[in-house]
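Input/output pair, single chain:
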Amino acid sequence: MSTNIYKKSSTSSPVVWEKFKETIEKYSLITPNDRILLAVSGGPDSMCMLHLFHRLNKQLQNLKIYVVYIDHGIRPKEIRNEIKLIKLLCSSLNIPFITRKIKIKGNNSGFEFKAHKKRYNVFLELAKKYKCNKISTGHNINDMTETVIFNILRSPGAEGLKGIPIKRDITKKITVIRPLLKIRRDEIINYLTKNGIRYSTDSTNLSDKYTRNYIRHKIIPELEKINPQIHSHIYNLVEWNNFKEDYFDKLTEKIVIEVVKKRGNVIKFDLLKIFKYNKYLQYKVFKETVINYIKTQNIHNLIEEIINFIDRDDIKKLVLGKIKLIKTEKELIIENEY
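Output:
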């Protein structure tokens, strides 16, 4: 938004309210007459988000807000309390409240990924049903820090610096927004306390057997001792990295058109042109080309093998499982037998 359409706050805990509004304006997260689906779990972040949107709507008076709670079928006692808590707040604020239950098979390491995917499928379904053009989640700046550290630990490539996007289009008409992403968790708790808003605590967030919880409870407190501004520093690092990646992504699209030819199970690369670019752009060109073409558990390692292969003068053919690499003076040929 180009102009400030919000009134200054004189109520308690102005820090959260002002950061919320500033984030919305800076990133153009909300426009007049938006219909917004709020993903509320009953935890402090989402309950704070719900209250902030209610205050925002009192000023704008042209938003339509819906709240959805996802029941994962675990923690039955806690779920009943969470639903009761959210329902009570929604009722007092006159906001429609929807609950949906999802079933996830197993309780292994892939549970969180499966739950995330199913949640967003439900969000998308409800957004379409209620004609919402925005879905808002309560992720805060601590979540960003945790995500970046988690990604760095598991990703060997530049993807490790990717965090949580402040907005992301999931269809041509529906965007996920995260207006609390610049607010610290302690600021959120303080806001809830001063405004007398109750919230619940998910017991699974207390166990350090989950990697993300270990990062939250053990690693980040140590980093905060070294640099109390660690969260804002990581946020800025991610934001500038995203600017850089957006530029390189667009450049990569142009290079791929220039140097790549596909036919059936064969991809050909113009090596004379590829060698004009640095290793990072070579990496991105190969990744952009093969990621949807070759089935592999570790695309990063495969691309490193390809780059090492084209740099070597002593070898012209290389077989990697069902993938065959052939190098001529002018071309790299990749044959995929999957």
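The CA atoms of residues 51 and 197 lie 8 Å apart. The chain is about 50% helix and 15% strand.
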